[in-house]
Design a protein that fits this description.
single chain, 124 residues, mainly beta, seven-stranded mixed sheet, four-stranded antiparallel sheet, globular
């Protein structure tokens, strides 16, 4: 059974850092396209970062390039997101997800398995 559980969210001041982690079970994260998404109330879900190690691909939204780093821990079977220099506009619920089928990217289309989310709040 596929399961994704996020952790690491919290409240920080602008300029601070947080590290999100997504514990996966039922499959190996290194063999799938994996992504981090975020969503604010009333807005569409936005792709933040994606990674597909099988094809050596990593993707970032322009808004987080240079500040966020996506990575995978093979031993722990986790997908991680290091977030530095956080801004108030980064405030959202963050979700990790697994994509089915071929290809990878930051569109939510094709991502079929989702975690429950972890809240990130950045104050100015």
């Amino acid at each position: 059974q596929v399961q994704l559980v996020e952790s690491g969210g919290g409240s920080v001041q602008a300029g601070g850092s947080l590290r999100l982690s997504c514990a996966a079970s039922g499959f190996r994260v290194t063999t799938y396209c994996m992504g981090w998404f975020r969503q604010e109330p009333g807005k569409e879900r936005e792709g933040v970062a994606g990674q597909y190690l099988v094809i050596g691909a990593t993707y970032y939204a322009d808004s987080v390039k240079g500040r966020f780093t996506i990575s995978q821990d093979k031993a722990k079977n986790t997908l991680d997101l290091q977030m530095n220099n956080l801004k108030p506009e980064d405030t959202a619920m963050y979700y990790c997800a697994r994509k089915s089928g071929s290809g990878c990217g930051l569109s939510a289309r094709g991502y079929t398995d989702w975690g429950q989310g972890t809240q990130v709040t950045v104050s100015s």
